[in-house]
Hints:
Elements: E1 2-8, H1 11-22, E2 27-34, E3 37-44, H2 48-55, H3 57-61, H4 65-105, H5 115-118, H6 127-132, H7 134-155, H8 163-182, H9 186-194, H10 201-215, H11 223-226, E4 228-233, H12 240-255, E5 260-264, H13 274-283, E6 287-289, H14 296-302, E7 308-312, H15 323-331, E8 337-344, H16 349-359, E9 364-370, H17 379-388, E10 392-396, E11 405-407, H18 410-431
Helix pairs in contact: 2-4, 2-8, 4-7, 8-9, 8-10, 10-18, 12-13, 16-17
Family: Belongs to the GTP-binding SRP family.
Main location: membrane
InterPro entries: AAA+_ATPase, FlhF, FlhF__GTPase_dom, P-loop_NTPase, SRP54_GTPase_dom
Amino acid sequence: MKVKRFFAQSMAEALRQVRDQMGPEAVILSNRRVDGGVEIVTALDYDENMARQQLGDAARQATNGSRLAELQAEQHRRLEDELGRSRERIREVREKRALSDSRNNGAYAGDIRPAADMAGASDMVPEETAVANPAYSGELAQMRAEISSLRDLVSGHHRGAEPEKTAVNAVQQRLAERLQEFGLGHELAGSLSRRHRAGRLEDGWKQSLKMLAAGVKTARTEWAEEGGVYALVGPTGSGKTTTIGKLAAHYVLAHGADSLALVTTDRYRVAAHEQLFVFGRILNVPVRVVDESHSLDDILDELSDRHLVLIDTAGLTSTDKGYEEQLTELARSHHRIRTHLVVSATSQPRIMKSVWHCYKMANLSGCVMTKIDEALTLGEALGFVMETGLPVAYYTDGQKIPEDLHHAEAVPLVRLAVERLKKLQQQEAVAV
Ligand SMILES: Nc1nc2c(ncn2[C@@H]2O[C@H](COP(=O)(O)OP(=O)(O)OP(=O)(O)O)[C@@H](O)[C@H]2O)c(=O)[nH]1
Ligand SMILES: [Mg+2]
């Protein structure tokens, strides 16, 4: 990026200078009245991300582009003033030296150009000058380094930093922040953003969403079509029984009640199966309970003529009595049971992960994401399914039976998550 300051008596004249010297692509960073006229600071190849990077802390307060440009113009002015002072100091040192040389030798030092000539290239001090006058060599070398670094700063080329790389890093940083705002964890957001190696923030955002959609697995067919035995496991209150009610109601509405059965393995809690029995009565579907006298396999043998069997389980934690027994009977059954983890989208990512560790032993085939309606952002849930590789069979977004149940598809889910983020940002904007 090339930054240049223009001064003229009128704005029209200043703008003409800008057009003549910088061309039509120049961006005006700031303009202001100064003694005797107007001053304009302009930039060519202006890159907002790089400007933010260079301004550091100050850029954080600049929420819009014009404030950022003003800050950068101010910084440029400060650096140019500093550069002017350094040139002045170097001129003084040289004059002093020339005076002392002429006193000593009675001659003017021919290798030193007059101060006026130094304006543009004051760092080009010939080596022999410093060597011939050791008294000044330290001071001159120090000033030469200082002036050279100031010039780098003014022109935006920090020594050691590659501007293109800096700009890419800044875009990646902002992309990672946006992905975290979306609800993804720090690591996943970082790894997605690092894959964006060139282009604007918006391109990186779209690319990350595509990668996310590609990384979220979903079940190809609906359970009602495929048929078989499906069990729902998961922590208490995650929505297992309600989801079974929704699935059963959908099934009965489409195919009737004859080929469906409900089973519960919850014999651990008082009146635990009441809710399931209510669904059974309303839908006219049989409900069977696994207990000491009826094993899961015996019940499934009896129900082998049913097209679809849905198994509800007790939401137990690893310290509860019956936790291991319940999961083992699912995992060891001689029937093919497709066990799905029911996870609430409102859970903290760490809790989702620990729930997954808890229920892995049941040989999970996939998951059902519940309470999507209550989650502020959905990136947490998407990150969870991406990281665990669990295919999402269904998601639920409310308590209404059967309406609030949906077969999951990756792209609409990611789209839903984007809409949720937008809504959140709008709410936050109104609140400010
Ligand atoms: N907002 C909302 N509430 C839901 C959703 N799914 C379930 N719920 C509610 O969550 C609460 C718990 O649901 P249950 O189905 O009883 O949960 P569970 O997993 O069977 O719980 P346990 O039987 O204790 O293991 C109920 O009040 C449901 O109405 C959903 O998608 N959105
Ligand atoms: Mg339940």
